[in-house]
Design goal:
Oligomer: heterodimer
Helix content of chain A: 40-55%
Shape of chain A: globular
Radius of gyration of chain B: 21 Å
Strand content of chain A: 15-25%
Number of helices of chain A: 10
Order of helices and strands of chain A: EEEHEEHEHHHEHEHEEHHH
Number of strands of chain B: 0
CATH topology of the largest domain in chain A: Rossmann fold
Low-confidence stretches of chain B: none
Largest interface: A-B, 24 and 15 residues
Structural class of chain B: mainly alpha
Number of helices of chain B: 9
Shape of chain B: elongated
Largest sheet of chain B: none
Distance between the termini of chain A: 39 Å
CATH class of the largest domain in chain A: Alpha Beta
C-alpha cells in the first residue's frame, strides 16, 4: 500500500498541492483523476520522489520514503515501475535493450538470464517480435507496451502510469487498460494510474481519487463516480455529451 | 536592483553547476555499463572529431606559414617561419582554438542529447529506476573529454606544424632545413606541458558546461535548441576566461 500523508507543495506563490491525504491499495488499479493543472502529475512526482514535497510524507508499505536519504531510497525505487505519458523509452537503445536496462543495472543476472527475462516481459505485452526495433520504429501503442514491459522487468511492487492512454486510439487504449489491469492482478502490485480519460476510468479502475485545485475532493469507485454528489466532480465526469447521455440513460 | 538580481542568478547557476558535478562524480552503479558508455563517448568526442580537427589544423598551419613568410623582411632569418608556426600551434591555436571548435561540435551535441532526454522524461525514467542520472549520463562524457581532448590537441599540433613545413617548402618561402631549424630553436618542453594542462581544463569545461545546460533544459524542442546554444556560448566564454587565468598562472 502507498500512503500520502498531508502532502503540500507550492511553486513560488502557487499552491499546487494542499494537504493531500490518499492511500492506494495493493492488488488494485487506483486511479487519480482531475482536470489538467489540478495537481495530479505533481502529486505523482512527489509520490515517486522526483519532486520533494514542502510538507507531509509518503510511505510505501509503512516505509517512510520522504524521510530516506537518496541512497536509501534506491531500494524502494527498484520496487517501482513507471509508465510515462510519452513512454520515455531510451531512443538510443532497441526495444530489447530498453527492457533489459533496469536488469543490467541492478539485477546481478547473467547476460543470458537478462535476455530471457526481457523476452518474457516482451512476450507478456505481446511484442515478442519487436525486440530489435528502435522506439522510433514503433507505434504509440507499441511504445506504451514496451514501457509497460520495462516497468515490470524487475517484478515491481508498485506501478505508476502517467496518462497511459494519451495519444492512443480508443481500441488501443482499451488494450493498454486491460494490460494494466491484468498485470496488476498477476504481480499483485499497487498500481496508480493518473488519467483524465473517462473511458479508461470506467474500463480499468478499482478505486478513484478525484483531485481538484490541489485537494482530493472525492474518493470512491466507478459506481460512486456516476452517482455524483460533488459539483466539481460532476462537472468533470459529465463534461462530454456521451457521459451526460449515459447518466440520463437515454439513447446515444 | 538589476545588478543584484543578475548576481544572484549567476550564483544560482554556479551553485547548481557544483551540485550537478558533485552528483556526477559518484561511483557508477555498474562498472561494466560505465566502461561501455565511456568507450561510446571516447568515440563520439574523439574519433568522430578527428576529421574536423585535422582539416582545421592543416589549413591553419599552412596559413600561419604563409603569413609569417609575408611578414618577415630581409633582416629577419627565414627559420623564423618554422619557429612561428611551432609556437603558434603549440601555445595557442591547438590548445585553445581546438577546444573552442569542439565546444561547438561536441558541446552542442551533448547539450541537445541530454536536453532531449530531459524533456522526453528519459532522465526521470532513470531516476525512478534508482539510477543516478547525473553520474550515468555526465561522468562518462567528462572522463572521455579529459582523456581524448589532449590527444586531439597533440594531433592538431603535429598536423599544423607538418602542414606549415610542407607549404613552406612547396611554395619556396623556406627550405626544409630552415623550417626544421626554426622548429627546434629555443624549444622548451614546458610549452607543451603548459598547452596540455590548458587542454585538460578545457576538455573538462566543454563537457561539463554543455552537460549542465542540457541537464536543466525544460520545456520542449525550442528550449532544447536554446540550451544547446547556451552550452556553446558559455563553454567558449569560460574557456576563454580560463585560458587567460591559466596563462597568467603557468607562464609566470
Amino acid at each position: 500500500m502507498i500512503e500520502l500523508h498531508n502532502i503540500s507543495k507550492s511553486f513560488g506563490e502557487h499552491d499546487v498541492l494542499k494537504d493531500i491525504q490518499a492511500s492506494f491499495e495493493r492488488g488494485k488499479v487506483n486511479f487519480v483523476i482531475g482536470r489538467s493543472g489540478s495537481g495530479k502529475s505533481v502529486m505523482t512526482k512527489c509520490t515517486v520522489g522526483l519532486i520533494e514535497p514542502d510538507q507531509g510524507h509518503v510511505s510505501y508499505d509503512g516505509r517512510n520514503f520522504t524521510a530516506l536519504s537518496r541512497r536509501d531510497r534506491k531500494e524502494i525505487r527498484q520496487e517501482i515501475g513507471m509508465l510515462f505519458q510519452g513512454s520515455a523509452l531510451f531512443d538510443s537503445m532497441t526495444v530489447q535493450e530498453n527492457v533489459s536496462f533496469p536488469l543490467k543495472m541492478f539485477s546481478g543476472m547473467t547476460d543470458a538470464e537478462i535476455d530471457r527475462r526481457a523476452s518474457e516481459c516482451l512476450e507478456r505485452v505481446e511484442l515478442a517480435d519487436a525486440g530489435s526495433r528502435f522506439p522510433a520504429e514503433c507505434s504509440g501503442g507499441m511504445q506504451k507496451r514496451v514501457g509497460i514491459a520495462r516497468a515490470i522487468a524487475m517484478n515491481p511492487k508498485y506501478l505508476f502510469c502517467d496518462e497511459p492512454n494519451s495519444g492512443l486510439d480508443p481500441q488501443t487504449a482499451i488494450v493498454i487498460d486491460q494490460l494494466i489491469m491484468e498485470i496488476t492482478r498477476e504481480y499483485n502490485m499497487t498500481t496508480v494510474v493518473i488519467s483524465h480519460d473517462m473511458n479508461s476510468v470506467m474500463e480499468a479502475s478499482d478505486t478513484i481519487h478525484f483531485v481538484h485545485e490541489g485537494r482530493i475532493l472525492w474518493r470512491g469507485d466507478r459506481g460512486g463516480l456516476l452517482a455524483g454528489g460533488v459539483p466539481e466532480l460532476e462537472d468533470f465526469v459529465f463534461a462530454s455529451e456521451l457521459m451526460r447521455r449515459i447518466r440520463k440513460g437515454g439513447q446515444i | 536592483m538589476k545588478a543584484y538580481l543578475r548576481a544572484m542568478r549567476w550564483l544560482f547557476h554556479i551553485g547548481r553547476y557544483m551540485q550537478l558535478l558533485s552528483a556526477s562524480f559518484r561511483r557508477p552503479e555498474k562498472g561494466r555499463v560505465f566502461r561501455s558508455l565511456l568507450i561510446r563517448e571516447l568515440d563520439a568526442i574523439g574519433t568522430q572529431s578527428i576529421g574536423i580537427v585535422a582539416l582545421l589544423s592543416l589549413f591553419m598551419g599552412a596559413v600561419i606559414c604563409l603569413q609569417t613568410a609575408h611578414q618577415i623582411g630581409g633582416w629577419i632569418p627565414v627559420y623564423t617561419i618554422g619557429f612561428t608556426v611551432r609556437q603558434t600551434m603549440i601555445l595557442e591555436f591547438s590548445p585553445t582554438l581546438i577546444p573552442v571548435i569542439l565546444a561547438g561540435k561536441v558541446g552542442s551535441n551533448i547539450a541537445s542529447q541530454i536536453g532531449t532526454m530531459r524533456v522526453t522524461e528519459q532522465i526521470d525514467a532513470l531516476e525512478i529506476m534508482g539510477v543516478n542520472s547525473a553520474s550515468y549520463l555526465i561522468l562518462p562524457k567528462i572522463i572521455a573529454g579529459l582523456c581524448i581532448v589532449p590527444f586531439l590537441v597533440i594531433l592538431s599540433m603535429v598536423m599544423g606544424v607538418g602542414a606549415g613545413a610542407w607549404v613552406g617548402v612547396a611554395t619556396g618561402v623556406s627550405s626544409l632545413a630552415d623550417f626544421e631549424y626554426g622548429m627546434q630553436v629555443d624549444f622548451h618542453v614546458f610549452d607543451v606541458i603548459y598547452a596540455l594542462t590548458k587542454t585538460v581544463a578545457f576538455g573538462f569545461i566543454l563537457t561539463s558546461v554543455s552537460a549542465y545546460h542540457g541537464y536543466y533544459a525544460a520545456g520542449g524542442a525550442l528550449e532544447v535548441g536554446r540550451s544547446s546554444t547556451r552550452a556553446v556560448v558559455w563553454s567558449v566564454v569560460i574557456i576563454m576566461v580560463t585560458n587567460l587565468i591559466l596563462t597568467q598562472m603557468l607562464l609566470n
